[in-house]
Amino acid sequence: MAESLSYLTSVSSQLLSVDKISDDRYDCQIRDLIAYIKRSDKSLDTEFLLNNLNPSQHTLPYLFMLNLRVGSLQKKTRNTSPDEIKPGNDLWVKAVCFLRTFDPIQVRYAGNEWRRLIELIGQAAEAAAKPFLAVQVIRDAILRLDSLCGILSSVHVIFLRLCLLSRSYSYALPVLERQIFHFSTGQVQAYRKYIDHPLCSKNTPKDFFLSDASELSVKLTYRDHVQYFLYGGMIYMALKEWDKSLHWLSIVITSPVNDSVSKIMIEAYKKRMLAGLLGHGKLAPVPKTISSHVLKVFQSLTKPYMSLSEAFERNDFPRLRAEVDIGRSIWRIDNNEGLVSQLYNAYNSFLVLKLGRTFSALTTADVAQQAFTSLESSSKVENFVASLVMAGYLGATMLHLKSPGNATMLHFSGLPETYITRERGVRAWLAKEGQALKMITNGVDQCSNELKLGNENLQLVSKNQRWPDSSGKSGGNVIGEADGIGLEIDEDIMGDNN
Amino acid sequence: MDYMQQDAFDTVSAQNAGQVAGTGSADLENMTMNVTGPLIRVDDPPKFELESYIANYTGRTRFNRLYLIGTCSTHLSVEALKAAVAEAKSGRDVTRYERAVRALADVAPNDAEANPDTTWMDHMKKSVKAETDRLEHELRGYKNNLIKESIRMGNEDLGQHYSQIGDLSSASKAFQRMRDYCTTPTHIASMLFKVINVSIERGDWLNVQSNVIRLRNLQSKQEEQAKNQPKMSAALGLSQLHSGSYLDAANSFLGTDASLGDSYNEVLTSNDVAVYGGLCALASMDRNELQRRVLDNNSFRNFLELEPQIRRAISFFCNSKFRPCLEILEAYQADYLLDVHLQRHVQTLFTRIRTKSIQQYLLPFSCVTLESMTKMFSPGSESPTDTSSPFVQELIGLIQDGTLDARIDLEKKVLVSNQVHLRKEVQDSVLDSLENYAREAHIRILRTNIIQAGLEVRADERKQRDERGKGSAFDAMR
């Protein structure tokens, strides 16, 4: 046993000095190591090795040993998540420790095992009804493997689902805030195969090592990416970040459709309508990229939501209440009851905001008179407005008047923002947007390169397409305009033949 | 047109759409009856004398105007309807005689003229039938002889006859058939004018516009053009007025040459041009334009002299004396409501003028007391600064639809205009467009990459994977 330990440690410690050895050597050695482990896996004492290996240095052996151990336990107990892997037990601790400290480059060679470990952790935590325990671990592992997270993998979907189950919404933000641009797929771009980078190299494009070949992700289906973005939208909704949630849900509803619309997309459309109402007081405009027949399907399947939002937008409170009551069973079936019940509050706050655009000062009694809602008395209005001001939605101040009736005067002006703080805020915001824009531009460039629409490619194409000109022009002019066009087409055909 | 009120525009265009759809058989009288006829009752006495007013017009418009006044005005109804009956009886249109008599019977059932003269009607019907047959027979004869000029004149006579008996769609068709047989530009011009007149009476404003444009493109002599110009622009203005494009209408009326005089009395008089043009201009132009293009306009001054109150209203508006301006308009409202062309637009025009006055009035102030505004725009109303007073409600409406950039302060009872931070606005819009761009680009990139990865939503795949639950995570949102 000791000798296998010493062999494993010696190889791994060689690997650690990455700077000194070339990528190719590294590649070679690591493949040897994997072959060795796979060859001798039956004879290895997993427990002994697990106790003696350091997961950050000997990532690969450790990972394989963990999986072997779990596999043998699973066989013994005939249970997919045996007790030892449950939170708090020995193997759980080891797995968590591994996922916090593993070496991201070595893992590239054992994507399948890494993914299985994460799935296992997720299942175990869920089986023990403590999904929260897995959330942070998986998040750290994802970020550790690929700090930019530009590529969607099946692990992402598992992670967001766990976040929703454990209601640990804000823990998902570090992953959510890194925008997804790519999808891990089976087929790597053909030209990529000719660029020979070993898996460990820094230059290896991410979508290569995250492709199915390395098995870091199971093969994705349309369901996975649609679900991922829906989950993301739901997390932002729970955090009341309506703008972001709208964006994520827009991604879901604009997903390209081959022949039929997915039910997940319809769920997203419904939630998006509610998010628009809650966040902006009106329906969010539908993105232009959505095709008209898909939109028709959406609209025909979301009629109750449509009439609900109409009532909301028209400031018709009695109708809004009636619509909410009528559709109660629908909201329940769609699991949107919570969102719908938030509408009342949102309605009132948008009403007050609207009053703020019309009046610069009025008494709370006037507000109650204008509102016709649950805010029927001026003291209720006062409480409600106070909560809005404190939450920062509304810039207003209230004054208790001494003169008749002890009315409260509401001033919609708030404290003026000083010039400097605003400028600073704007600058910071601009810098942030600039960063985001850079990311997007990279994405666009990469995308157009892959579509062969990159600048170089276009130049090449235009160079190849320069026709021999001025040969038939004079004849065309004589014949007349209409014939001239026909002649030019002829020229093109000739050019193709050449 | 940026201060155009949304709802006002909607109603106008809706009516307009109705017009276009119903051009087949609807004529102007039916139109006004259907759309607004029964709705508008004018109780105030108008300022004009009925007899001298109607003496300005000739042709079929006399009856239309009399009938409208008779049905709408409570003051003049009997007088006007009697005149309408007499007018109808002097013509050959039996249906409108019947209509006038029926309307008179509603107002004054005991009047002698309220009983239809059946002998006259029978006689007239017979003679009309005979005349129609004769003209059609003659036309057929001309067609057999293939003499262009005779065919043209035959069609003209037939059209004239149809329009006299009130069969306007046939009249329009007959006039349009003349087209192929016209040989000189003068003929074409006279034919087009006939078509335009019939279209005006039918309320087919699209047709009016297209024919005026045809007329304008006609190659004819300089003096001919000069002679036709006033009538053309008057007709064009009328059609634009009815389609709700008041600025265009104002421009057309302002461009009408003073030589119009009383040459177009079968449709409108110079007084009408002054009123229509003045009101449209007042509703659609700003103060500078009004001064420059209306008051300083030499040719339009001739018209304005005929209707001095319009001139006064415009100059009051230009001098920012809004109260007298609105007072003049209110005083003449009854007159305008009894005008066959203006009736449906008076309300919209007045609302716009009022809205514009309020806007102009607020321009120099950063803060105005509601009291002084009420004095200016709705004098005599009680508790002017209460939230429920109509004037404050009107202000609220204007603020909420974005016409006024101001806010009401109910504590100090003032209207405060909003401060504009240009720099802040620019910054906000920049950030906004940045964000929008980033979002849209992201969605588009994802879309391409999804398609490239072959991950489009498909039907077949769903069946296989339906088992994999997706519900559990939704529960978390509850």
UniProtKB/TrEMBL annotation, chain A:
Q: What is this protein called?
A: COP9 signalosome complex subunit 3
One GO CC term on file: COP9 signalosome
Q: Does the keyword Ligase apply?
A: no
> Membrane: present as a keyword of the record?
no
TM regions (residue ranges): none
User: What keywords is this UniProt entry annotated with?
Assistant: Cytoplasm
Which segments constitute the COP9 signalosome complex subunit 3 N-terminal helical repeats domain?
Answer: 39-292
Annotated GO biological processes are: ubiquitin-dependent protein catabolic process
From TrEMBL, chain B:
Regions annotated as coiled coil: none
Q: Which Pfam families match?
A: PCI, RPN7
Q: Which GO terms describe its cellular component?
A: COP9 signalosome; cytoplasm
Domain (PCI): give its ranges: 245-422
**What PANTHER family is this protein classified in?**
26S PROTESOME SUBUNIT 6, COP9 SIGNALOSOME COMPLEX SUBUNIT 1
Q: InterPro entries this protein is in? A: PCI_dom (IPR000717), Rpn7/CSN1 (IPR019585), Rpn7_N (IPR045135), WH_DNA-bd_sf (IPR036390)
Of which family is this protein a member? Belongs to the CSN1 family.
Protein name (Swiss-Prot/TrEMBL): COP9 signalosome complex subunit 1
Query: What is the superkingdom listed in this entry's lineage?
Result: Eukaryota
Signal peptide from the UniProt entry: none
Assembly and oligomerization: Component of the COP9 signalosome (CSN) complex.
